[in-house]
Amino acid sequence: xxxxxxxxxxxxxxxxxxxxxxxxxxxxxxxxxxxxxxxxxxxxxxxxxxxxxxxxxxxxxxxxxxxxxxxxxxxxxxxxxxxxxxxxxxxxxxxxxxxxxxxxxxxxxxxxxxxxxxxxxxxxxxxxxxxxxxxxxxxxxxxxxxxxxxxxxxxxxxxxxxxxxxxxxxxxxxxxxxxxxxxxxxxxxxxxxxxxxxxxxxxxxxxxxxxxxxxxxxxxxxxxxxxxxxxxxxxxxxxxxxxxxxxxxxxxxxxxxxxxxxxxxxxxxxxxxxxxxxxxxxxxxxxxxxxxxxxxxxxxxxxxxxxxxxxxxxxxxxxxxxxxxxxxxxxxxxxxxxxxxxxxxxxxxxxxxxxxxxxxxxxxxxxxxxxxxxxxxxxxxxxxxxxxxxxxxxxxxxxxxxxxxxxxxxxxxxxxxxxxxxxxxxxxxxxxxxxxxxxxxxxxxxxxxxxxxxxxxxxxxxxxxxxxxxxxxxxxxxxxxxxxxxxxxxxxxxxxxxxxxxxxxxxxxxxxxxxxxxxxxxxxxxxxxxxxxxxxxxxxxxxxxxxxxxxxxxxxxxxxxxxxxxxxxxxxxxxxxxxxxxxxxxxxxxxxxxxxxxxxxxxxxxxxxxxxxxxxxxxxxxxxxxxxxxxxxxxxxxxxxxxxxxxxxxxxxxxxxxxxxxxxxxxxxxxxxxxxxxxxxxxxxxxxxxxxxxxxxxxxxxxxxxxxxxxxxxxxxxxxxxxxxxxxxxxxxxxxxxxxxxxxxxxxxxxxxxxxxxxxxxxxxxxxxxxxxxxxxxxxxxxxxxxxxxxxxxxxxxxxxxxxxxxxxxxxxxxxxxxxxxxxxxxxxxxxxxxxxxxxxxxxxxxxxxxxxxxxxxxxxxxxxxxxxxxxxxxxxxxxxxxxxxxxxxxxxxxxxxxxxxxxxxxxxxxxxxxxxxxxxxxxxxxxxxxxxxxxxxxxxxxxxxxxxxxxxxxxxxxxxxxxxxxxxxxxxxxxxxxxxxxxxxxxxxxxxxxxxxxxxxxxxxxxxxxxxxxxxxxxxxxxxxxxxxxxxxxxxxxxxxxxxxxxxxxxxxxxxxxxxxxxxxxxxxxxxxxxxxxxxxxxxxxxxxxxxxxxxxxxxxxxxxxxxxxxxxxxxxxxxxxxxxxxxxxxxxxxxxxxxxxxxxxxxxxxxxxxxxxxxxxxxxxxxxxxxxxxxxxxxxxxxxxxxxxxxxxxxxxxxxxxxxxxxxxxxxxxxxxxxxxxxxxxxxxxxxxxxxxxxxxxxxxxxxxxxxxxxxxxxxxxxxxxxxxxxxxxxxxxxxxxxxxxxxxxxxxxxxxxxxxxxxxxxxxxxxxxxxxxxxxxxxxxxxxxxxxxxxxxxxxxxxxxxxxxxxxxxxxxxxxxxxxxxxxxxxxxxxxxxxxxxxxxxxxxxxxxxxxxxxxxxxxxxxxxxxxxxxxxxxxxxxxxxxxxxxxxxxxxxxxxxxxxxxxxxxxxxxxxxxxxxxxxxxxxxxxxx
Length: 1477
What we know:
Layout: H1 8-15, E1 19-24, H2 26-33, H3 39-43, E2 53-56, E3 62-65, E4 71-74, H4 82-95, E5 106-109, E6 112-115, H5 129-139, H6 149-160, E7 173-181, H7 187-203, E8 218-226, H8 232-246, E9 251-256, H9 274-281, H10 312-316, H11 320-323, H12 368-405, H13 411-420, H14 445-458, H15 462-478, H16 482-498, H17 508-521, H18 525-541, H19 545-554, E10 561-562, E11 565-566, H20 567-583, H21 590-606, H22 610-624, H23 630-646, H24 650-662, H25 669-689, E12 702-703, E13 709-712, E14 723-725, H26 737-754, E15 769-770, E16 781-783, E17 788-795, E18 802-817, E19 822-823, E20 837-839, E21 842-847, E22 852-861, E23 865-879, E24 901-911, H27 923-927, E25 940-942, E26 948-953, E27 958-960, E28 963-973, E29 979-985, E30 992-993, E31 1017-1019, E32 1027-1032, E33 1047-1049, E34 1056-1057, E35 1062-1070, E36 1076-1088, E37 1097-1109, E38 1112-1120, E39 1132-1141, E40 1149-1161, E41 1164-1169, E42 1178-1180, E43 1185-1194, E44 1202-1208, E45 1212-1214, H28 1221-1240, H29 1251-1260, E46 1261-1276, E47 1279-1293, E48 1298-1299, H30 1304-1310, H31 1313-1320, E49 1352-1357, ...
Parallel strand pairs: 1-4, 1-7, 7-8, 8-9, 16-25, 27-37, 50-59
Antiparallel strand pairs: 2-3, 5-6, 10-11, 12-17, 13-15, 13-17, 14-26, 17-22, 18-19, 18-21, 18-23, 20-22, 23-24, 23-25, 26-28, 28-35, 28-47, 29-33, 29-34, 29-36, 30-35, 31-45, 32-44, 36-37, 38-39, 38-48, 39-43, 40-42, 40-44, 40-46, 41-43, 46-47, 49-51, 51-55, 52-54, 52-57, 53-55, 56-59, 57-58
């Protein structure tokens, strides 16, 4: 808003001052030109009186005039041209820019922080009481609004350029100075000549311009004397003659040039003329910051525009040329600025108009005494000449009006009487006729009243002026002379406001009527604009900002030129002032301020005021930015970019367009495309100015730095026929934290095995792929000649496609030789050659609209050292929308020119800066925000290492549960270094095997052995189903004591794989027992023959996915055999094996054949099959179940090796003690034991068992493992295939059922519901040590009751059928032998009780038909492993079938008294048939 040192009253007084014409002779002009000044220019700084002036009004009352100012101008006989006025006003605004060096302050209005005033005012919403006081204090101050010197200069120039009009006399000349030099030959004649010239100009019809106040114009004769060259006595004599001729009050002798022009040049004399001359020549401005005469001169700066990139100056805030404006962008406290880059940067020139090449001094021949003489001259002229003339003229006009109208004593007293009563209602302007063309004759009394009113106004007699204006207004309205009436209304309003003491309020409606009349009826926009400028200042001084804003907005128009005036410039200035009114209200209307600043900027732009337009948009941006008004922000930024580019502020333009692109734009695709093209065009212009400079940052596309992934190594090879490469790690795999942890455990396990230790304290896993989830605190390791792939996540936020060309990584490398420890010098990317780091560039990378796309960029290190990946560099461009092909992968290898570009692309870069994880370990880190390092982009390149590739040949994807399949694995060394120590580790060692130590290392080719059996077989001709035994040591299959079966040595020839060499090894697979999809992880470990300081080993991962389907469900139970004889040769068991075909027809399996059942144990072996079926071939169709009964006997000799016994049901024996049968058995056994021990680990703290309890337990333990081998006939593609497999059942205890699958869930799926319910009724604890109490107790440990049943083995010997003649003898007595065997290693006391124990009516009925004769109870003691017989007699009275198994056997250890005796139950009933003969 306009700010002045003077008050509004002073501004209004200075807007209308008495005009004095000056007519100088040529010699007089020459005298003043010695000072590089004309006469009017010479006296202009001294035209304001420094003392009060007195005059008397028509009532002879003394009137005081303060601070009177007069204007002395040369006579110009041509009225100013409208084009010249427009150019003058345009130039005035152009050169008036914000002053430099002023410190801005902030007003807080609601959520907004605006730099708005020259005094720091803190305001907030809701308003605090202190704010109200501050505001009231500011309103009374002269410094309460923002500085807009361009508006002040425009307003001052506009008022000065107002042409004289016939309807008013304010711009008419009151007097005329005739100036003659004393050096002229005949000064008096020259005066006469000038007087005649003035008379001719005023009264001749040839000259209609300028206008004169009254016919009898005051002539004031000035004799100009040049002291330095003239004769003083001559000047005095001429002056005496003048006084005699013109009177002492009509002439004056002015002496100047007291100092010669050739001396005293070094003296510093004030130059009060500069500010006026600069305004006249449109060179600089007049900012009224320090006083009425303080100036800021133009430094004659050149048209230099700084193009220093987006440097520190622009990031710290606005540059100097814009800092002075109080509405500049806030660069200290505004946290919502986009990226610290300002919208406007410095422009070294204040303006771009034509400037003078040298500075011309003024008043060089004048001394301070001359200054005082000129000041005294003006005072004498005013006191003695001008004011008496005006006073006289006012009296004459008053007398004429009184005489003509017959009024009473004076007009003054009459008007007081007229206007003291009631007012006559005025007509509306719309009711009046359009008679603006009405002209009054000069002598018309209405014009005389107006003339008198103007004279009174010029000499500050506002009360009398108001009365006259009011009277004239009524006369003009009565005559419907609208132009005259509007002028009277305008000045009446100003006079009412300026009256001392404010006797009446400011009649704003007068001004509104005048403005409407000027604009709508008279079509005179200059007069309407003058009314608006005056009234707006008056309203602002009364804090009526809303009314002032409305008034200013009324005069804005979209027409480019209205009535010859420049509408755009006027509208821009008025809209800007209206915006300042909104921000200065008590409750600042911030958004209205911003909106009208945008409108003002638009009109400035149309008017050609590019700098002012740019400033307005930048100020409005304070309000719109960061508030979610994205469309408004885009418009403002776009306009700022356009204006900056026009002003050649290219960096500012780039910054503004950049803001449009980096925001989440809601613009349409077409608009975004236009923004992008503008940005590229501007950016290209900037880059052409500094082609050798550093690549600047590009805003598009977005880069998600945290999603950057770095991969070390070659890409995975695709599958070639039946050859499948190891999956290893690739960028196509998603990160899984659980899998990552599993791989870490596998690697740690194999490293611990290699180092022969159980745990590693400082183990760090090998990381091939680094991402946001991996541990990036260490420097990753890369290998020479192995590529490093960086995956960068780009996102296109726009709705238009982007085309990146020549996309590559930006890096720097520091070579280092880790052997000699000589560090090289760091070299930047520009100086590094391809001999150090090779880079792969993507020629074309297309990103469709709003697409997120990954770019994989590769580097090929050729030397060891430290590599730092800094960012990406590329050409940014766009393409024609019609050429976008959806679904085309343009990430790599696109042909050049595949996409039709629009020919606009720029080169730039983006940095990859990754923030590490937040630290949260120590207390200091938890209480502060600290981030750790992320070094995924800073790899260390180590020396060459071996590189292993593994290929799986004919690897299946689907297997039956337990199916054995033979496949081949090829190991290939693709590096230049030999490798050794290849091992493979897996959490599922039971899934695969490379064979035992005796396996053939050089197998046949995979095709030759395609249809061969996976087992080692021999042909057997035995017709009886009896066992064939063999033995094997578990250590031969990697399951020895102290070993870890998970870590398997790969049996390479000579344990070394030379560079380029490959070897194929057989590998057997066994389908897991659980149905479903299984992911089985292999980790291959290998080392270099040569030890390295940075990298000790390498790994290769492979994940095999196997889908298993149901095959057989096997349940087995072992029982003690009742077949005892008196020799004690009856230590054998019966093994019952239930085999069920649970396969579904999905796999195409026709039937299963049980080809062999083998046992594995150190103590037991299968002897024979006692199935009664004569058919040896056991076939199971779908859902069929088979039952096998096998006899197991103890091994004769106890050996450390496992004994394998094979019962063959087919024609070929599978040697179960060799690979792969034994491999899978031992691995499965190890997994089962590992799982069992993990379940029992919770009980290990209970201590050792009682020896007696342990003896009892051993009686029920069975260390017998069953292997069921089978073949399945499968029809696939009309071909019959034979599949092989094996299932394992581990029998731990007598009478406990064991199953072939470890998880109940899988078992429950296979069995029916009723079977499962029966199974659930059994105790889930089947382990050996599960009878422990869970808590410590002092009660002696005691085994469960069922374990005593294994202590003594009882058997009855009797005839199965006994015939007796009950007619001859009613009692039938049958001899029965009871055999008792001690199965333990200790002496056992046995009690046999033959009494029937009646537990239910059924048992009474069954047992009541026979009885035992003789003793009812026997007591025996059996030694260790002793077999004893007891002869009993059974008595029957009827025929029938009887159960003789009623004797109850009680046992206890002989040396124990704490154990209770427990009844022994026979394993099966003893039935006898009694027949009658």
